[in-house]
Automatic annotation (TrEMBL):
Transmembrane portions of the chain: 185-202
PANTHER family, per the entry: SIROHYDROCHLORIN FERROCHELATASE, CHLOROPLASTIC (PTHR33542)
The organism of origin for this protein: Falsibacillus albus
Protein's UniProt name: Sirohydrochlorin chelatase
Pfam families hit by this protein: CbiX
InterPro entries named among the record's database cross-references: CbiX-like, Sirohydro_Cobaltochel/CbiX
Keywords: Lyase, Membrane, Metal-binding, Transmembrane, Transmembrane helix
GO molecular function ontology, one term from the record: lyase activity
Domain of life: Bacteria
Length: 260
């Protein structure tokens, strides 16, 4: 039998865990496989190992594993594949397919535009800061830049800049200070799934900038578990189920990064 296992990031906050479970369960309802399970990478239960074993106990012979993560960074490219490598040694008779995170997808620009429109009336010369969590992995910078380019191409936004909260440059604080030169409006989109400590830090920086410059600075809502992301996740599940190139290999290869 076939199974789908979704791996959410995990958080100690019950609300965050419940939101992730609700989103994953909603998406799995549309997947026609007999076995469907949800687990967490860290900070919550069940673990990846527990989730996989639940699939096996229910009779799974093939497990499609999907990381419910925004971008392909260390978690998606190293941490999860290491766990899957251990699991594949323990259960060599089980076929494992490992799909992609949300990544760069043409539908995401629509979600970003919706967040902007919900927050303010957009001026023609507005600067948009697309703010990622950050990673030392260069693919994160590349992918967020590609998403910014998509937003400019799909909607009437002429200036979208990318920056990061941790572990990558340019930093959010630096970009916020520089973005306002000659511009009256700054629109900030947190490229995050949910509110948390990182968002609280952004609010403090924005308050300081407003006091210093008097600029119109708008902080949009995070992406959240939006129906557009549900659609993207569904597409990631289906491609990993149908495409043999997504089969997990013990050597660490896990998905074909040039898929679109």
């Amino acid at each position: 039998m076939e199974a789908v296992l979704l791996i959410c990031h995990g958080t100690r906050l019950k609300q965050g865990r419940d939101e992730a479970l609700f989103f994953a369960e909603r998406c799995l309802r549309k997947i026609d496989v007999p076995i469907k399970e949800i687990c967490f990478l860290e900070l919550a239960s069940p673990s990846i190992e527990d989730g996989f074993e639940m699939c096996i106990r229910k009779g799974a012979k093939k497990v499609t594993v999907i990381p419910v993560l925004l971008l392909a960074a260390v978690h998606a490219k190293v941490d999860i594949p290491e766990k899957l490598s251990f699991i594949s040694e323990k259960y060599p008779h089980i076929q494992i397919s490992y799909g992609r995170p949300f990544g760069v997808h043409p539908a995401i620009s629509t979600l970003l535009w919706e967040r902007m429109k919900q927050s303010t009336s957009i001026m023609g010369d507005a600067v948009v800061l697309l703010v990622g969590r950050g990673s030392r992995d260069p693919d994160v910078k590349r992918d967020l830049h590609s998403i910014a380019i998509q937003l400019c191409g799909d909607f009437p936004v002429s200036n979208v800049q990318t920056c990061f909260l941790t572990a990558a440059e340019p930093s959010f604080e630096e970009s916020l200070m520089l973005a306002g030169w000659g511009r009256k409006q700054i629109i900030i989109i947190p490229y995050l799934l949910f509110s948390g400590l990182l968002l609280n830090g952004m609010k403090k920086s924005i308050q300081h900038q407003r006091k210093m410059t008097g600029q119109d600075i708008i902080l949009c809502e995070p992406l959240g578990y939006h129906f557009i992301l549900e659609m993207v996740l569904h597409s990631r599940i289906m491609e990993a189920m149908k495409d043999p190139s997504f089969c997990f290999c013990k050597g660490g290869a896990y998905y074909v990064s040039n898929h679109t």
